[in-house]
Amino acid sequence: MVIPTSEQVGALLTEAGIEFDAFVGLCAFAGLRLGEAAALQVGDIDFLRREIQVQRQVQRANGHAVEIRAPKYGSERTIPAPDGLLELVSLHIAHWRPGDDPTRWLFPGEGEHPWHQNSVGYRWRRTRLSAGVDTLRLHDLRHFYASGLIAAGCDVVTVQRALGHSSATVTLNTYSHLWPDADDRTRRAADELFRASAGSVAYPLRTDGLK
User: Fold this and answer.
1) Which residues pair with residue 105 across a beta bridge?
2) Rounded to 5 degrees, what angle do the CA atoms 143, 37, 55 make?
3) Is the pLDDT of residue 179 over 90?
4) Is residue 175 a contact partner of residue 146, using CB atoms and an 8 Å limit?
5) CB contact burial 29-61 (16+ within 10 A = b; e otherwise)
6) Is residue 64 scored above 90 in pLDDT?
7) Which of 2, 63, 121, 198 gives 20 to 30 Å between its CA and that of 94?
8) Which of the 8 DSSP states describes residue 108?
9) Of 2-6, 46-50, 107-111, which range is least confident?
10) Predicted model pTM
């Protein structure tokens, strides 16, 4: 598993440009799979409730046909969206997708279809090369999102629902190494006690005996 750094994700957003940055943002800050992000309609973004509805995905079928299907493992879900991502998507809509039809594709492709694996893959390869992170996969942005939720203290069920995993077991099997263990929690608690106690009296570190 490769988890991009915040600096790498920032570089990707910068190099993606105004056509592709919202797509990168949806993968990095909402954990969407490629097919889920590509199949979003404008009406799936609820700016008032600050939510994103994942209701479908794009798949390339045999014969290179583009199909719209239910999300993987039946993982329809509602994702709480951060304000920065909503602003990014709002700018994308204003520039590329103005109009009143809520069913219009957020990322329209050729004909009646949205973007798919090929059209996204081309843009992704170009973006990561410009950002100097040409070994990263688009799916690594999903790991970036999951690691951020875990670092912020989200529990297994919360992460499972956000990612659309079929069960909490899948989430644990994938990300268990990122959750703090008992030693980590003990160390963190003791560190907070130390900082609260020492900081309250401006406790100086004792270095006299080392001189």
Assistant:
1) 41
2) 110
3) no
4) yes
5) bbbbbbbbbbbbbbebbeeeeebbbbbbbbbee
6) no
7) 121
8) B
9) 107-111
10) 0.86
**For the chain, first and last CA: distance in Å?**
46
**Residues whose CB falls within 8 Å of the CB of residue 40, separated by 6 or more in sequence, listed in order:** 26, 32, 52, 54, 105, 106, 107, 114
**What 3-state class would DSSP assign to 54?**
strand
CA–CA dist 185, 158 (Å, integer): 19
Look up the CATH number of domain 6-170.
1.10.443.10
Q: Helix (H, G, I), strand (E, B), or coil: what is residue 36?
A: helix
Domain boundaries, the chain: 6-170
CA–CA separation, 90 and 21 (whole Å): 12
Q: Which residue has the tokens 């046909």?
A: 65
Tokens of 198: 């020492």
Please report which residue ranges of the chain form alpha helices under DSSP H: 6-29, 34-38, 83-96, 117-130, 140-151, 156-163, 168-175, 182-200
| Residue 15 confidence (pLDDT) above 80 | yes
The pLDDT tens digits for 111-162 are 889 999 999 999 999 999 999 999 999 999 999 999 999 999 999 999 999 9
Element (DSSP H or E) covering residue 80: strand 77-80
pLDDT at 196 (0 to 100): 81
